[in-house]
Design goal:
Alpha-Beta Plaits; 9-stranded mixed β-sheet; 13 strands; about 30% strand; 4-stranded antiparallel β-sheet; alpha+beta; 2 domains; Ribosomal Protein S5, domain 2; 9 helices
């Protein structure tokens, strides 16, 4: 059995440049992995085909990204070698909130690609894995690398940046954002053309490790479009800034909002105060920014969900 964990991410910036005819959005985004993890267990040689179990039963569908990633990896590997590949049973222990703009599903898909490649002695090259990842989703190539990166195009152009030393406090409301509807609302506002790129300017500062100097550059073009009667992300940002965050924004298309903190102690104090003031159905986390999205764990005899 192979056991690994896959992380979440936050978008320090998310700038929407245009929409292609095929429906994909051209973006510029500075993305950073964070220390909030799902755990995946891979059991090999379990009959033919692929199966998935999870502590979230709603995820156990044939269209789950883990299963799609496993099928895509096997197809690419089979075209490269006459070796026969047995079945795989995947157990997904989900901790990352669903539908919050944290990329948990994309991280799971990338972890599946990396885990299968680990088990089969790195049969596919990194570029081959990235080609598969892009077919699965715009965030999946980033999760093969982790740390910090400037992501451009539809996710296929990644410029690696140094992982930053900071902590994040996440406010996760008890409902999902509908990504398609958020983008639709954004385009209905007839956004003006970009005069400058906050993402490129922030990337320059992060290259020098100056994340606090880039506080004013955090930006999410979807912020207003993600607001609704049940949750106002702009208000949540103000709450984080009032609790000593040096910068705050929304991740992805929502609904998670995050604040950045200089230390673990300050972040954990803020998390406690914010969580106490919110309803119990909100999830509030204090997590570090991390250099990795994927990590192998010691093998176990039986997966737990």
């Amino acid at each position: 059995m192979l056991v690994c964990r896959s992380s979440a991410k936050i978008n320090l910036t998310l700038e929407v440049l245009s929409r292609r005819d095929d429906g994909y959005h051209l973006l510029q985004s500075v993305v950073h992995s964070i220390g909030l993890w799902d755990t995946l267990y891979f059991e090999f040689g379990i009959g033919p085909g692929f199966s998935l179990r999870s502590n979230w039963p709603a995820l156990m569908t044939e269209d789950n990204l883990c299963l799609r990633a496993a099928r895509a990896w096997t197809e690419a590997a089979s075209a490269k070698t006459p070796q026969r590949f047995g079945g795989v049973r995947i157990t997904l222990n989900k901790s990352i909130p669903l539908g919050g703009g944290l990329g948990g599903g994309s991280g799971n898909a990338a972890a599946t690609l990396l885990a299968l490649n680990e088990h089969y002695k790195q049969l596919l090259e990194p570029q081959e894995l990235e080609n598969i990842a892009l077919q699965l989703g715009a965030d999946v190539p980033f999760f093969l690398r982790g740390g910090c990166a400037l992501m451009e195009g539809i996710g296929e152009r990644l410029t690696t940046l140094p992982a930053q030393k900071a902590w994040a406090v996440l406010i996760c409301p008890p409902f999902h954002a509908n990504t398609a509807k958020v983008f639709q609302a954004f385009y209905q506002t007839n956004p003006p053309p970009k005069a400058k790129s906050n993402s490129e300017e922030l990337a320059t500062l992060l290259e020098a490790g100056k994340i606090k100097s880039g506080a004013s550059l955090l930006q999410n073009d979807l912020l207003h479009a993600a607001s609704n009667a049940a949750f106002d992300p702009e208000h949540a940002i103000k709450v984080l800034l009032a609790h000593q965050a040096f910068a705050a924004s929304m991740s992805g298309s929502g609904s998670t909002v995050f604040g950045l903190y200089k230390s673990k102690t300050v972040a954990q104090d803020a998390r406690s105060q914010i969580a106490e003031a919110l309803d119990d159905d909100f999830l509030v986390y204090a997590v570090p920014l991390t250099a990795k999205c994927y990590a192998l764990l010691p093998p176990v005899s039986k997966p737990t969900i």
